[in-house]
Write a structure and sequence with these properties.
Layout: E1 4-10, H1 17-27, H2 45-50, E2 57-63, E3 66-72, H3 80-87, E4 92-98, H4 105-116, E5 120-126, H5 135-146, E6 154-155, H6 164-174, E7 187-196, E8 200-209, E9 211-213, E10 217-220, E11 225-235, E12 239-241, E13 244-246, E14 250-255, E15 268-271, H7 272-275
Parallel strand pairs: 1-3, 1-4, 4-5, 5-6
Antiparallel strand pairs: 2-3, 7-8, 7-15, 8-14, 9-13, 10-11, 10-15, 11-12, 11-14
Length: 278
């Protein structure tokens, strides 16, 4: 677990979250350059068309000897619930502020959510390459908001990749490793779920304690529903099957459930042998 860092990116709409996520995946060789396409984590057609993130998407990257689990969150005011779900699954947040626009109202709301969740916040100013950027003014706004030193703010261009490596290094250096005990019974937080026509209900989870292996019987504690973990793995960003998910890791579970009502966001997944009613 010492080599794991779980974090999200929070920002106002159009401040460059998805572009930064793209550069991170490129620099960590998670995705080959020939496979890169704009807003790689945005899977819905509407997202690509309008350039906004609606569904949060997790991705696992390797940087140096560390496993970085990133959740790209929505920036639009209507999706604050999606943001709060992702914050519960991570220890840190990269705060991205557009140097041409400064801090927006929704940025403030998301920062307060992150602070309430006791997350480590890494401040980043984006779009420093644009002629209209005002880095000094934006820096003052961030210092006033977070009470940090100006030299703690990383200035980047997600579009060109300038200084993005510094953000990756800061994630490793500043964000704490996840806590939890692998010897304890499985506890996994569901932070997203969706129904796939071909595979059934798929859960995005953060393993809080214990471990989960393929084909184990699982139990959703809130809905008291049993299921089977037909496949487990991580998103790289494609679904990549693993033998097990362990404490601190973020990944997916393909289940035999018929509806997402059986595995609600915020529910805890455990093993049926421990908690299922007889």
């Amino acid at each position: 677990m010492d080599q794991i860092r779980n974090f999200c990116i929070i920002a106002h709409i159009d401040h460059g979250k998805s572009t930064l996520a793209d550069r991170m995946m490129e620099m960590t060789n998670t995705v080959a350059k020939r496979e890169m396409k704009s807003q790689l984590l945005d899977s819905m057609d509407l997202e690509r068309e309008r350039g906004i993130t609606i569904k949060l998407a997790p991705v696992t990257m390797k940087w140096q000897d560390y496993e970085l689990n990133l959740i790209d969150t929505p920036g639009h005011v209507d999706f604050s619930y999606e943001v709060s779900r992702s914050l519960a699954a991570v220890e840190g947040a990269v705060l991205v502020v557009d140097a041409t626009q400064g801090i927006q109202a929704q940025t403030l709301a998301n920062v307060y959510l992150a602070l309430d969740a006791n997350l480590t916040i890494i401040p980043v100013i984006n779009k420093i390459d644009l002629p209209a950027s005002d880095v000094a003014k934006t820096s003052r706004e961030i210092v006033n908001l977070l009470g940090c030193d100006e030299n703690e703010i990383i200035k980047i261009s997600a579009k060109t990749g300038e200084n993005v490596e510094e953000v990756l290094d800061a994630v490793v250096r500043e964000i704490p490793a996840p806590t939890g005990e692998i010897a304890k019974p499985l506890r996994a937080l569901i932070f997203d779920s969706y129904y796939d026509d071909f595979r059934g209900v798929i859960l995005y989870v953060r393993i809080v304690d214990g471990a989960l292996a393929k084909n184990e019987q699982i139990f959703m504690m809130a809905t008291e529903t049993k299921g089977i973990a037909l496949e487990i793995g991580k998103l790289t960003p494609k679904m990549t099957e693993f033998r097990e998910l362990k404490t601190g890791e973020i990944g997916y579970i393909v289940t035999n459930l018929k509806t997402t009502r059986d595995a609600k966001v915020g529910d805890t997944v455990t093993l049926a042998k421990y908690f299922a009613k007889s």
